What we know:
Blueprint: E1 9-11, E2 17-19, E3 23-24, H1 32-44, E4 48-50, H2 58-67, E5 76-81, H3 88-102, E6 107-112, H4 120-132, E7 136-142, H5 146-153, E8 162-166, H6 174-182, E9 186-190, H7 202-211, H8 215-225, E10 229-230, H9 237-242, H10 253-260
Parallel strand pairs: 3-4, 4-5, 5-6, 6-7, 7-8, 8-9, 9-10
Antiparallel strand pairs: 1-2
Helix pairs in contact: 1-2, 2-3, 3-4, 7-8
Amino acid sequence: MTTLNIHSTVTLNNGVKMPWLGLGVYKAEDGNEVKNAIKVALEAGYRSIDTASFYHNEAGVGEALRETDVPREEIFVTTKVWNDEQGYEETLKAFESSRTKLGLDVIDLYLVHWPVTGKFKDTWRAMEKLYDEGKVRAIGVSNFNIHHLEYLLKDAKVKPVVNQVEFHPLLTQEELHEFCKKNDIQLEAWSPLTRGHMFDDERLVKLAEKYGKTPAQIILRWDLQKEVVTIPKSVTPARIQSNTEIFDFELSEEDMNILDSCNEHKRFGPDPDTF
């Protein structure tokens, strides 16, 4: 995978191409903060922006997209339907709200943010309708465990293209990753950098020294080599830039194994089964 660069994409199961690296904007304040982060990211070469209605910054994301010189068709935009917006009619309404705030005719990827019991199948039917109508280029899920996916796939007309989950060396989700591979669902990592909790880990520090990289860069490179799309979030220009500097080296198999062995099934976000 050393031939990858910041514009490299993975082809999803419906033929749509999605960048391997994107900018997450969770907790970025609407207005100047999120706009500046996106501006810096686009200048650094990012072409994927991940937001959600729950982040309350879709309007700022939309402004940034209108103000950039990067053509719209080059930018991959993801947003998500929140838990209290789920259900069939509710999702259609939530989508229109997101689309208006973003100022986009078509959204590239629309995700079910969490598997709300008793609702996510109706939510999915609404998303299939949006997909059929060409209002979204791809639909997927977030925070779905295997049993959620199995239940959804039983009668879904459209298979999810992506499952965006918490994924990092302390939570490698191997069974889920394997299930997604078998079913041609692309795994995507949120909180890939363990919210900084792992940066002092001796194993990671040693690898960073060995490759002349930061701990964050080592983890992001590990993601790529695990064939997991990754969307590190930051509003700091230096970090946004630093997170792109992962395409000029490759972790050896032995070093990949070291990071794999860090798994503790440790979550820093909620558990989908109890949230």
